[in-house]
Design goal:
With 128 residues, the protein is α+β, with helices and mostly antiparallel strands. The longest helix is centred in the N-terminal third of the chain and has 27 residues, at 2-28. It has one helix spanning 2-28, and strands at 37-44, 50-57, 67-75, 80-88, 100-105, 109-116, 119-127. The protein is built from one helix and seven strands, in the order αβββββββ. The strands form two sheets. It has a four-stranded antiparallel sheet with strand order 1-2-3-4, with no helix packed on it. It folds into two domains: 1-31; 36-127. A hairpin with a 5-residue loop joins strand 1 and strand 2 (50-57).
Length: 128
């Protein structure tokens, strides 16, 4: 009876270790990078009240796919006002400041135009 309990306990320990190594391997290979934002550019409004942050989400789809990006609008105290997730089609390239064609700070919103080599310009409006 004791030998059976020991085998069950050892089997459970081995199963937990194997699952742990699988998750750790996926982490090292970048499987979870899709959820990690990287700041690409920070743009401040002319009056200093707002900051627009352009982020890349994870890595571009391999080999020549799109890249997930996010625009985050914050106030001067760092509180998030709005955010928009989208993607750019730039032949598998990482997001860069070159993708921001224009930023126009209006009275009640900021208008951002994103550009990339394999897509039409995309206008995104974030309201204050």
């Amino acid at each position: 009876m004791k030998k059976k309990k020991v085998k069950v306990v050892l089997s459970v320990i081995v199963a937990v270790l194997v699952c742990g190594f699988v998750v750790l391997g996926l982490y090292w290979n970048g499987a979870f990078n899709r959820f990690l934002p990287t700041d690409v550019a920070k743009l401040e409004s002319p009056d200093g009240k707002y900051v627009l942050i352009y982020q890349q989400l994870g890595d571009p789809e391999w080999p020549f796919g799109s890249t997930d990006v996010r625009l985050v609008l914050k106030d001067r105290d760092g509180r998030k006002i709005a955010s928009v997730n989208t993607s750019i089609a730039d032949d598998g390239s990482a997001a860069s400041e070159m993708n921001i064609k224009s930023v126009e700070w209006k009275e009640k919103a900021v208008v951002v135009v994103l550009q990339a080599s394999e897509m039409d310009d995309r206008e995104i409006v974030l309201e204050y």
